[in-house]
Amino acid sequence: MLSMNSRGAIRSIDGGRFFSSFSPLLRGQNVIEKIVQKYSVDLPEGKNVFSGDYVTIRPAHVMTHDNTWPVALKFKGLGAKKVKDNRQIVNTLDHDVQNKSEKNLTKYRNIENFAREQGIDFYPAGRGIGHQIMIEEGYAFPGTLTVASDSHSNTYGGIGALGTPIVRTDAAAIWATGQTWWNVPPVAKVELKGVLSKGVTGKDVIVALCGLFNHDEVLNHALEFTGEYIDQLPIDYRLTIANMTTEWGALSGVFPIDQTLFDFYKSRLSRLGANHPRINKQTITELEENPVKADDDAYYDKTLTIDLSTVEPSVSGPNSVKISNPASKLSADNIKVDKAYLVSCTNSRLSDIQAAADIVKGHKISPGVKFYVAAASSEIQKDAESSGAWQTLLEAGAIPLPAGCGPCIGLGVGLLEPGEVGISATNRNFKGRMGSRDALAYLASPEVVAASAILGKISSPAEVEGGAAPGVSTVKTSIRKNEKPEEEEVAEEAGKSSVLSGFPEKITGEIVFLDTDNINTDGIYPGKYTYQDDVPRETMAEVCMQNYDLDFGSKTQAGDIIVAGYNFGTGSSREQAATAILARDIPMVVAGSFSNTFGRNAINNALLTLQIPKLVSKLREEFPEKVPTRRTGWKFEWDVLKSTVSVKNEKGEVILKEKVSEVGPNLQAIIVEGGLEGWVKAEIAKSSK
């Protein structure tokens, strides 16, 4: 999305090159901005990257998993034959590893053959979950920008890397050109005060955060975790917290590069040996000598705090990460458990397996409960077997599954049946994700999951040995919105941008107001059409917004500008949510905020978007009666050259004038070429000349 410039900067043009009109010394950069700066390409000399900027990024690595074959087909459909940099790409098989059907095995063979032909690093089914492999093998490494075509690439933030998800089109673009685009998000600081009490884990922290800050406080933000005692948080706890920043709504969650992390890598080095290509004495020494740290005057959009000493073993659910309660409270409710799970990229590392084994040792899984366990990788399973933890779980009655995703994503054996209750150490408990929509799913730490499997009901670990569950305490939290630093603007005539041939200098139209927040992709484009590949443009235009408002079609016309509420485009990642709007000849969408996935799909398909919360507020003030689709008579104009938006009411009065982010040449080129795929094809054509 083209969001308002977080610095209020006016950009200037000099010899066709874009640069900020402010001195880069006016304020420092946070960790997110510094990492993006390092992996941005074609930046003008002296240009410092800040939140709100659109940049072209060349990530250190890109991982795809079972979706590798669809990405490969898209890559081939672009006319590409050879990947740009096979050292940048990693392929792993991890989601449907229990599926031995010929169809799935054929897909897996296709992926392996493609990786071999292209010289891409490939990890077969059974080696482990892709995110864990990326960390174990050093592809995701502190201070790097590493992306994956999977929403849980946030996990890499646990080791101080900027991990963020991309969609399949982005992955194909990186394969073909080595790069894609990114809009640097607002950055929030999450301050972890105090230290954890005995028996409280990283999973309890993120479960509490998701449940206490449950009104989109961090939606589409990048997070930086800080705290005086943060060095006492083990790396496995950090990985768990970073992993579930996805469910919290963030695009990434990054922990500091500190002594605890250095020690982690030195221990890892002793296992890998001296000749590992990515984790070796040289890379660790360089990391110690040049860790990425925020400048003292770095800006953060907001600061959230939680007192770790007030957190206790906690549980999310049922069927929502936005509901959390102390395990002790739910224990008193005697919630019977049918299935328990210690699987996934969230909590299946060695320390998690050992913690669960410590709980179940000397006990048996409760009759009527099935307890499924899977290590995050084959390496972790070997370590758990060597330590005895794996055998302890099996002797207690746990059911082993292969290293992989499995029931976490609703695949393979052990799914929840109608009416069942499950408690899981995974990251998502959305209705129907782990099986039946008529089941109840809860999330918790490995310790709480193990205790619940033994006692047959949601329980606190202390209860396993006959102790009492701790009393319910109040978790202490706070949130502060930070003021943006004052920065001096340059003269207006110096603030003009340039426009590439084929890109409009101005976009105008009447505002049609959709006064609703959280309009989802099913509302924009009905799901029953999603997997029909032959839907004509006319039909797409006809059914656009049909599930949102049946009157949308009769109330809108070509050239209108849609203005919607907040979190527009939430839900599934279907690209047709963007292309259906374009099929109606609506050139752009303005909203208070967008789902990140919709925002990427929009630009990837050449649909322009702007994020202007003030306009939504003014429309709601003027039109207090809620109507799903309303023609307003207000005229919208976006002056691309001046990077300004102005809105006039039906009387011709200017009621809003806003400075917005410049549309840089990289973004313009994508739109001019009809989207990211068109841009990639153009780049391939250039390189073949």
Describe the structure.
Among the domains are: 314-465, Aconitase, domain 3; 504-662, Aconitase, domain 4 (Alpha-Beta Barrel), CATH 3.20.19.10. The longest helix is centred in the N-terminal third of the chain and has 17 residues, at 102-118. The strands form 7 sheets. An 8-stranded mixed beta sheet has the order 1-27-26-25-24-28-29-30, sandwiched between helices. A 5-stranded parallel beta sheet has the order 8-7-6-9-10, sandwiched between helices. Strands 14-13-12-15-23 form a 5-stranded mixed beta sheet, with helices on one face. Mean pLDDT is 91; it is low at 1-25 and 487-494. By secondary structure, the chain is of the alpha/beta class. The two termini are 33 Å apart.
- Helical content stands at 25-40%
Q: State the separation between the terminal residues, measured CA to CA.
A: 33 Å
Low-confidence stretches: 1-25, 487-494
The dominant shape is globular
Rg for CA atoms? 25 Å
Mean pLDDT: 91
State the major sheet. Answer: 8 strands, mixed
Brief characterization of the structure:
The protein is built from 23 helices and 30 strands. The chain is an alpha/beta fold.
Record keyword descriptors for this entry:
single chain, 689 residues, alpha/beta, Aconitase, domain 3, Aconitase, domain 4, eight-stranded mixed sheet, five-stranded parallel sheet, disordered N terminus
